Please model this.
Amino acid sequence: MPAEDSAPGRSPLASFSPDPLDKASFSPSSDTRLRSYTLDSLNISSIENSKGYQRAENIRPSNSPEQNVEAASWTFTEILQNLSVREKDDVYLVITKCNQLVELLQETPSLKHDMAIDMVVNRIQFMFYHPAPQLRCAAYRVLRYSVATSDSILFMVQSKILISIIVSLSVPCPLLEKQEALKLVREFLNVPDGAAFISVGVIKALVSIIEHETDETGNPNAPPTAPQNDQFAIPSSFTKLCIETICEIAVLKPHIVFHGGGFRLMITLIINGSSDIATSCLLVLMSILDKPEARLFLRNGLDLTSLTSVYSLVDDDDHSKSSNTRKFHNRALKVTFLISVFLKCWTGIICFSHNDFEALRIIVSKLKGNSNKVRNIIMDLLLDILRIQALPWLEDSSIYDLITSLNVFLSPGGQSTDTVDNKYIELPPNSFERTVISHYQGLILKVLLSSGMVPLIFDIIDKNTDEEVTSKATFLLTNVFKLSMELLPKQLFQDHLSNAYKKSLSLTSIYKIETAAKLQMKTHMGERKRSEVKSHVKDMIIENRMKMDDANLKTLISRTKLLTSKDYEDWDWAQISHLCQGPLRDQKRFFDIQEKYPKVLKYLMSFYRPFKYRFSRAPLRPDERFKLKHPKRVILVGCQLIEALLNHEAGFDYLASNKLMPQMAEIFAQVSPCSGITAEDPILSTRKLETTLSIGYVKFVGVLSSSNKGLVILEEWQFYQLIGDIIDGNVESSSNVHLLFNLLNNLNFVSDSPLRILLSKVLTVSREETKLFTLENVIPKLLKTEGCYDYVIRTLSNLLYDESKAVVALTITYLHEYFVIKGNISRINLLIDMRPSTLVLSKHTKGKELLLTFCTTTKGFRLLHENGLIQRNLTATIRGLQTLDYLNNIEGTLKKYMYPFSSVLQSVRNKSDEDCHHFFYYLLSTEDGFIFFNSQRTVLDDIINKTFAIVQKLHLIETKTEAVAPPDFLYSRTRPPPVESTSSKTNSIESDETDDSYKFESPTKLNARGDLSFSYTKESLPESTGLSIKTAEDEEEYMLMRLKQYLWIIGEIASSKYGIQILDPLYNPSMRNDHVIDLILQLYRNSKDWQIRGIAFHQLGKMAATNEGIEMLDDMSWVSVDNHSPQDPLYLAYPELMQGDDLFNLEVLNPYQDSTYISLFGNHGDELWANQQLDLDADDGLGLQINQKLDDKALSLINHLSSVLGKIERKAMKELNSIKSNNGEIFESPNLFLKTIRLVDKGKFKYKTRNFIFGLFDVVKIMENLVKRSRRSTGGRK
Model:
C-alpha cells in the first residue's frame, strides 16, 4: 500500500465502513476476536439525524428518584473503576462497559452533573490511542453523554481530546468514528459558551471534508479523479451535517469559523452547492450581517459581492456542450433567486451598497454582454426586485423543489396545497404596506437608474438580437418609466431618463417602446374608464346606423327576411339587430317603417308575445332539432327592440299599447302567489327559465327598468306589485328563487324608483340565501355607480342589524372595501350620520378597522368617544405595547407581499389581514383626537423616552469623525424652557421605569446608561415575543425588537395629520429637549444595526404625508414625491444625497487588523496554558530530537504540501516518503507531531493531503505518549 494511502498504527478495519442500521449478531467464539468484531455487533449507534441528533431517552420508572440517582451513581462509579488500560485487549468487554455507562447516563441525565469529569476522561483516555476504531467510537460516545458544563469541556480540551477529533476527521477511518467525533463537537454547542472551546483546527478539518466531497461530486472545475477507494468514501449526508455544524458555530462564534475558512466555504457553497445547502448558508450569512460585531469577518458584507461572478460562466450554446457547462446556467438561476431574496431585506440592500452599490452595478453591466441567457436572467432579477413580475422560471428550477418540500413540511398536518403560489399579491390601495413597499421600490429603482440600467436596456431594444429578449427589455423599460413617475421625485430620475433618450434610436425601436407604453396604459386603465370608452364606441355605431337613406333601409329590411318567411329560424337576426340599433331608434324612420313596411314590427312583436309559444318555447342552447345556431342572440335582439322603442315617444306609445306588455304581466302573475292566476306549467317556471328562451322576458323587464318611460310602463301594468308578491312568497317558499335571482340581476336600481323599495324589501324580509345573493350581485354594481352611494350606504347600515351572521359579515366587508380599501374616506360621514352599531362592527376584524377610519373625521371621533371606544382602544393599545404583536403583524404582512415564493407564508396567505396602521395614526387625524391624546400623552412620553434609552443602552449610533449638524427645524423657533411633567411620573405606563433624568440628554452624546428597565421577567415575558430572556444576547435582541416597534409607532404618528405637532418639543414643554425625529435621522445615518437603519429610512419617508413633515424633511435635505392622487396617494421621501454620494456610507472592515491568532484549542485565556504551548520540547524522558535539521526539513516539506502548484506538492510528497523510509523514527516524535498539528492548523490542506500527513506518523504511539506526558505533568503540578 502506498505511503500516502496508509495510516500506520491504525487498525486494518480503518477502511471498513458498514451500514450501522443492520443489527448483526455477535458471536464471541471466533479465534481472532479483534477481526471478528463489527461496529454493528458492538452496539455503537450511528448518527441519528442531521439536526443535532435527538436522543431517545427511555427513562425507567422509579418510585424514589433520589434513590435511583444514588444507585445509578454507585453503579456508574463501579463500572468506571473496572474500566482500565489493562483490559484494552478485550475489545468486546471494554465496549460493553462503555455501553453500560452510556445507558446509565441516558436513564439518569442528572448523573453527568454529579460525576467528576476528570475521572471519566482519565479512565477512557487509553481508548483514543487504541488501534481498534470501535474503542475510539465508544470513547467519543461516553464523552458526549458526559458533557454537562463548560468546565467539563475545558478539561476535555486540556486532555488533548481536540487532537483526537482532528485526527479522526482527517484520516481514512470508519465513517462511524467520524460521526461520533462530530457528535461530540455538536454536543459542545448545546452547552452555554461551549462553542468557545472548539478550535480552528476542528473547523479546518470539517472544511477539508466538505471541500473534498464537493471537488469529487459538485465542482465542475475539479479535474477528473480516479475511482474512489473505500477509505475516501464520505457520504453526502455526513458532509451536509458538517456544513450544518459549521453554520451553527458561525452564528455562535463567527471568529473561529472565519479563521478556519468557514465563511469562504459558505460563499462558495452558495454558488456551487445544492439549493438547500445554498439557502441555508445564505440565511446564516444574513444572520451574521445582522450582528455589528460579527459582520467584521465578512468585511462588512463586501465579500458577498463575489456572488455576482456566477454570471460570467453562462454560455448561450450550453445545450451543445458538456453537462458541466449546463450546470453554470442552473447555478446562475439559483444564485439569482438567492440574490432576489437577499435584496428584499435591509441587510441585503445595505450589504450591497459598498462602493456605491458596486455589486448591483456589476449585475446591471451584464446586460451589455453578448449572452442572451444572461440578459434574460438579469432582467428577470430586475423585474423581480422591482416587484413588477416574479421570476418566471422558478417553477422549473431546482429551488422550486425545495420550496415545495418546505411547504409540505410547514403546512398544518403535513398537507400542502396543490401548487405554491408564485405571483405577487396585489397591494391594497391606501394601505400601510403599499406605502412601505413603494418606498422600497423607489429606493431600488433609484439605485438601478444610477447603475446605468436604462441606457443598457435601450441598447438591447435597438440591437434586437433576440425577439424574446427585446420584448422583455421593452416591458422592463416601460415599467421603469411608470414606476419612476409614481415613486420618485422628478429630480431623482429626470437626468437618467433624459440622458438615455439622447442616444439615437431606430424608428423600429421607438415604435416598439411607444406601443408597449400604450399597451401598459390600456392595461392599467380603470374599469370605469373602460366602460365609458365602450359606451362611447357603442353610441358612435348606433348613430352611424341611424343615418340611413331609403334605399339602404329597403335593402336592410329585405335582408332580414321578415317579410318573406314566417319561420323565425329563417330570419337573419344579425340584420334585425342592425334594424333595431339603427332606423327603429329614430322617430322619423319609425314612422316610415310603419307606413311602408307595417308588417315588420307586427311580425316581430308577435314573435315575442309569450302566448304565441314561439319565442317562449325556443331552446336556450343550440339543438339539432332547430336550425337556430345562436339562440341567445334572439334575446339580445328583443332587448335592443324594446330599447329602440323606448327611445322616442312614438315607440313608447306603440310598446305601451302592444299586446306584448299585458301578456308579459300575465306570465309574471302565473308565478305570483297573490295574483289569483295559476298555470300548470308556468312560462317562468324554473325548468323553463333554465332550458328555454323564456328567460328573455326577465331581461326585457330589466331593459324597461333602465329608462323612465319603461318604469312608467312597468307601473301601468302593475309589475311592481307582482314582483313584490314574488318577494313575499320567497319568505316561505323557494320555488321561485331562480326567477327572483334573475330579476335582481337584471333590474336597474340606479334611479330613485319603486324598484329600490323592492330591493330594500328583499334585503329585509327575504331568506338568507336571497340576501346574500343580492349583496354579492347587486350591491357591488351600485357601489360603482355615481348617485347611488347614499342609498347603498343607508341600506348597508340597516343590514348591520340583520339576524344572519353571514349577511352582517358580508355587509361589513363591503363597507370596509368601499371606505378603507378604495379610500373613499371623504364620504365616511354618510355612514357616520346613520350612526351604525359600533357593537356589531367591533365584533369583526374589518369592522374594527372601519371604526378606526371614523376617527378621521370630527363626527366619527365624537361618535366613538360617546360610545367609549376611544378610551377602550387606547387602553388596548397601551396593553399591546407590552407585547410585540404590532411588530410581528407588520413584519409578517411585509414578508407576505415581498416574498411570493416563501413556503412559510403559504399558510397565512388566505387569512384575514389585520390593519398595520396604528391606532395613534387614526387618533391624530382630527383636532379632537389630538386634544384627547395630548391629555393622556404619558403614553407617547414613555415611547419616546424608551426609544432614546434603548439607543443609548445598546450604543446603536456610531460616533463619526465628522459631526453632522442637526437639522434647521430644531432651532427654527424659540424653544420654551423645559417644564417637568407631573403626569409623567404618576401615570407612567410601565411603573418600573426609573428616573427621568435622561430625558434631557442629547442623543448625539450617547452616554451609556444602565437604568433601562422593562416590565418583564423571564417568567412573565409575553408569549407573542417568541423569546425567553436567558442571556445578555437574548435581552439585547428583545430590546432591539422593542425599538423596532417603537420606531414604527413613531412613524405612524409622524404620518398623521397632527402627528408632527404632538412630536415637536415646542408644543409640549414637558417632553425631553431633543427631537425624536432627529434621533431617527441619526439612526438612519449611523446605526450599527442595519435593520434599524432601514426602519428609520421608512419612518422619515412617511413624514411626507403632511406639510409640516415636508418642511422638516426639506431641512434634513430630503426630497418628497409629488404624487398626491385623490384615489391612491403616495407619501414618500428620499435623501438628496442619492444623487451621487454613497447612500449608506459603509466602510470596508479588515478582520485581521489588531486581531490575535486563534490558537488550535480556542481562545479561552490562561486556562488553556497547556494547549496554548502544546507542551513543546518538554523534558519528560521521551528524548529530544536527534536531528533538528531533519526535523525542520520535514516541517518545511509538509508546509509545501499546501502549495497550489501540483509539481511542488508532488516533489514534497516524494521527499517525505524518502525521509520516512530512511529516518522513520522522527515521525514517532510527539514534538514533531504537535508542531505538525500547529502547522496544519495554520495552513490550508486538502483532505487527501491531511490523510497523507497523518499517515506519516505512528499516531497510536504518539497519542499514548502524549497521554502519559500529560498525566505526569498533572501529577507534578499537584
Notes: The CA atoms of residues 121 and 246 lie 26 Å apart. The chain is about 60% helix and 0% strand. The longest helix spans residues 1032-1055.
